[in-house]
Amino acid sequence: MPDSYIIEVNSQTAGIVVRSQGGYCFFASSHRFNRLEGQLFRNAREAERAARKLVNGDVKEAA
Fold first, then answer.
1. Where are the alpha helices (DSSP H) in the chain?
2. Where are the beta strands (DSSP E) in 1-63?
3. Partners of 20 in the beta sheet?
4. Which pLDDT belongs to residue 8?
5. By C-alpha distance, which of 28, 27, 39 is closest to 63?
6. CA neighbours within 13 Å on the CB side: how many for 10?
7. Which stretch of DSSP H or E encloses residue 43?
8. Is 53 helix (H, G, I), strand (E, B) or coil?
9. Neighbours of 19 (CB within 10 A)
10. Cβ pair 34, 28 in contact under 8 A
11. pTM across the whole model
12. How many Å apart are CA 56 and CA 26, to the nearest integer?
């Protein structure tokens, strides 16, 4: 498995996730995704879902 993934939402780069102890840590690439900065996710798909929810306005679910 790769150690990092680029997360994109609607053709916009949201950030990257990097494998660390316990999961994947999110690093935002734009201010729009700062709310996810530093959060730990089980996998890259979970991080992508959180970024999509943030874009769609479902802020409670994204955090």
1. 44-55, 59-62
2. 4-9, 12-20, 23-28, 40-41
3. 23
4. 96
5. 39
6. 7
7. none
8. helix
9. 15
10. yes
11. 0.85
12. 18
Query: Do the Cβ atoms of 26 and 41 come closer than 8 Å?
Result: yes
Structure tokens at 6: 């680029």
Contact 42, 31 (CB under 8 A): no
Cα dihedral across residues 43, 45, 46, 47: positive or negative: positive
Residue found under tokens 């949201």: 14
User: Which pair of tokens denotes residue 17?
Assistant: 């996730």
Contacts of 35 (CB under 8 A, 6+ apart): 54, 59, 62, 63
Here the tokens at position 63 are 């955090």
Q: Where does the pLDDT of residue 58 fall: very low under 50, low under 70, confident under 90, or very high at 90 and above?
A: confident
Helix (H/G/I), strand (E/B), else coil: 62: helix
pLDDT per residue as tens digits for the range 11-30: 999 999 999 999 999 999 99
